[in-house]
Amino acid sequence: MVALCALCALSVAGPAEASRTTMATGFAVVGPLDDANAYRDAVEAALMIPLGGYGTTELAAFSNVNNHDRFGSERDLAYHFTVEFDVTAALAGQWRFRAGVDFGDGGAMMLDGTVLDYSRDDLWWGGSWAGPGVLSGSATLTEGRHTLHLYGLDRCCDGNFSAQFSVGAGPYVTFSNVDGLQPVSSVPEPSALALMAAGAGVLAGARRRRRQSLPT
Fold it and tell me: What is the pLDDT of residues 64-107, one digit of tens each?
């Protein structure tokens, strides 16, 4: 009986999560491109060919990260950052995004397949949100799962990258595993509610049978 109750509780509660950021890099010497989709296609093609000095990793925080610290290479880079996050009903509305990048041959920011920003210029962030190396944009988000993508190319001198979000008129927050973005999956699904109700029914029936079996 105790095990059934624990199963019901775990099914309803679900895991507590925040946003999830993945960094993937590959070798590329493409040069500046003419639109955001061209950057996406070039980066995805580069990532199809694994080479030493490049790789894929999940980030605890999207703050001051680079390729050479993780995989070794400092040049001829194709970058793809993916940030998955969930928007609850309470957080639905206007969101802002910004990413400090080092894309020497330009890059693009996309949200759910829509282009938020793009530049074929030399984008070098250098730690300043007021500088020229920032890709940014805003969107009205509905409840559910959303994905932010950063695609870019860099020939030399791999620098640092950071990305942040803002909800409504709130301050910017760095994407991380403690950024407070809770998953929609933490809200009970109908199947989980049904399981919980069934478990409660079993408990109630057991209590009635126990009372009836007690001597009067």
Answer: 999 999 999 999 999 999 999 999 999 999 999 999 999 999 99
Backbone angles phi, psi at 6, to 5 degrees: -65, -40
Separation CA 127–CA 125 (nearest Å): 5
Q: Is the dihedral of CA 47, 52, 58, 60 positive or negative?
A: negative
Residue 47 to residue 45: CA distance in whole angstroms: 5
* Phi, psi for residue 163 in degrees, rounded to 5: -145, 145
Per residue, the 3-state secondary structure of 76-132, as one string, reads CEEEEEEEEEEECHHHCEEEEEEEECEECCCEEEEECCEEEEEECCCEECCCCCCCC
The CB density around residue 214, as the number of other CB atoms within 10 Å, is 6
* CA angle, residues 33, 36, 37, in degrees to nearest 5: 95
Distance CA 178, CA 161 (A): 18
CATH architecture assigned to 12-186: Sandwich (2.60)
Q: Which residue has the tokens 């990413």?
A: 99
Q: Model pTM?
A: 0.79
